Amino acid sequence: MSFGTWLFTRLHGELVGTDAFGNRYYIDRRTKGKKRERRWVMYKGTPEASKVPPEWNAWMHWNLAQPPVQGAQRKAWQKPHVPNLTGSDQAYLPPGHTLMGGQRARATGDYEPWTPA
To answer: Among 36, 41, 45, 101, which one is most buried in terms of CB atoms within 10 A?
Structure first.
């Protein structure tokens, strides 16, 4: 977060809510109740857009008029939100990936790799 964003938030922002990751969501007091309210998020830690859960993302993009209810019941089929882990130590690496040793299981059937002549 830059000093300018922090200052703008202190002067014009009204806290609407927080999510499970500690991100804080704001609305501009000057545009509150108007057709297109100004909304933004102050990330906790590294600013990464994939850390915004789906319900807050819907609110940020004006798909929901009201902010999500804290502790709302999730459907049984909904999984907990996980940020994008690409490039981190917890990123998914399939079998045969060079960082996993580069060896994959042998192919079955009639597969023959192409070799240049």
So the answer is: 41
